[in-house]
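User: Reviewer 2 asked us to show a designed sequence for the structure in our supplementary figure. I'm pasting the structure tokens here. Could you produce the per-position amino acids so we can include them in the response letter?
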């Protein structure tokens, strides 16, 4: 009798904790995404096979597509400053990749080829002409692969703060697959996701990525928090896929094969950028490089004027 009573109490305690946890997570998603910071003018949705994809189009001239980094808190909002500067001379497109920002976030495993197909379809169906790509961070693999498979739809390529080839070549192992399953779970996974993209953790991360901490404004932090939390717990699926290397791809062959003009630019404080430049140039000696001063991990936020100047020179 006592055993049954203890079991019942334990069960009720577990149910209560679980219910409280679920409620807390729902409140976090609600309050994190209520500010509506991600709206940009001249925006629309592209109906794609895996859901609606948010994009913007501004200006007139040679088309440029800006692709954000593979980070669950990033979106087209990253390019707010760049758009206003580039639209004077270019037709500037931005896109929230599927699983990011204001785009739909299906509960699935996200891979490099998924994004490659999205960008290919977007250029073919929306832009409808040869396009220049500016890719941030890990989205380098997307730009290179799109160009390698479909050279007729890509003109020039620019990559900003590209990680090392070794980083991008990593693939999931057995432990990664186990951890992925855990972090996709409804309670534990969602709680960990909300912790990683909380105001405190995200603010510290962003400040560590820049030369001058005052560069990180409150509105920018709120935009990153909102981008990570729109669509509720479905937001964690893309984060988990990135975290455990499902979005990575070996780009060695693509680098050697591409004949398009390729430009690499990076913040002067970006870790090991000289070594990173060298390993890419060993595979493709025609690559051109440039440094963005007074910047580190977020040069499009820290020094957008100089980045725009490089885009104007190269593209």
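Assistant: Here is a per-position design you can include in the supplement:
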């Amino acid at each position: 009798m006592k055993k049954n009573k203890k079991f019942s109490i334990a069960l009720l305690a577990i149910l209560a904790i679980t219910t409280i946890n679920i409620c807390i997570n729902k409140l976090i998603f609600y309050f994190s995404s209520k500010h509506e910071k991600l709206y940009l003018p001249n925006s629309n949705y592209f109906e794609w096979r895996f859901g609606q994809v948010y994009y913007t189009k501004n200006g007139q001239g040679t088309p440029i597509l800006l692709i954000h980094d593979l980070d669950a808190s990033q979106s087209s909002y990253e390019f707010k400053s760049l758009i206003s500067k580039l639209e004077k001379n270019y037709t500037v497109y931005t896109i929230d990749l599927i699983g990011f920002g204001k785009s739909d976030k299906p509960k699935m495993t996200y891979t490099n080829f998924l994004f490659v197909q999205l960008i290919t379809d977007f250029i073919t169906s929306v832009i409808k002409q040869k396009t220049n790509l500016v890719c941030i961070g890990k989205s380098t693999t997307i730009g290179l692969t799109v160009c390698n498979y479909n050279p007729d739809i890509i003109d020039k390529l620019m990559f900003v703060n590209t990680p090392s080839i070794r980083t991008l070549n990593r693939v999931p192992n057995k432990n990664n697959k186990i951890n992925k399953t855990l972090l996709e779970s409804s309670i534990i996974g969602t709680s960990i996701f909300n912790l990683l993209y909380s105001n405190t953790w995200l603010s510290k991360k962003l400040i560590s990525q820049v030369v001058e901490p005052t560069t990180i404004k409150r509105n920018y932090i709120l935009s990153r928090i909102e981008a990570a939390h729109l669509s509720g717990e479905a937001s964690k699926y893309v984060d988990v896929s990135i975290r455990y290397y499902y979005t990575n791809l070996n780009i060695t062959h693509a680098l050697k094969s591409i004949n398009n003009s390729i430009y690499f630019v990076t913040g002067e404080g970006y870790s090991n950028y000289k070594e990173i430049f060298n390993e890419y140039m060993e595979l493709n000696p025609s690559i051109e490089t440039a440094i963005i001063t007074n910047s580190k991990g977020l040069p499009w936020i820290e020094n957008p004027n100089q980045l725009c100047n490089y885009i104007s020179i190269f593209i």
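For the response letter, you might also mention the following. Confidence is low (pLDDT under 50) at residues 10-14. The radius of gyration is 21 Å.
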